[in-house]
Amino acid sequence: MTNYTKKDVLLKVEQVSLAYGDKQILRDVNFEIRDIVRTGVQQGQVVSLIGRSGIGKTQLFKILSGLNQPTSGKVKLGNGSLIKAGDMGVVFQNYYLFEWRTIYQSLEMSAKKNPALKESQIKNEINKYADDFQLTEHLSKYPQQLSGGQRQRVSIIQQLLKGSSFILFDEPFSGLDIIVLEKVVNLIHQVSLSDELKTLIIVSHDIETSLSLSDTVFILANEDGKSGATIKKEIDLCAEGIAWNPDIKHLAAFKEIVAEIKGSI
Amino acid sequence: MLKQIFAPFGRTNKQIFIGLAISQAILALVLWHIGSNGLIPKPLNVVNAFINLLTSKNLIDNLLISFMLTLKAMGISILITLFLAYLSVIPFFKTIALFVVKCRYLTLTGLIFIFTLLTKDGSALKLSLLIFGIVPFFVTSFLSVILTIDSQQFEICETLGFSKWETLYEVIIVGKADQVVEIIRQNMAIAWLMITMVEGLSMSEGGLGTMLIKFNKYNDITNVLAVQLMIFIIGLLLDLILGNLKYWLFPYSKLQIQQ
Question: I need a labelling partner for B38 at 20 to 30 A (CA). Which of A132, A145, A180, B55 fits?
Answer without folding.
Answer: B55
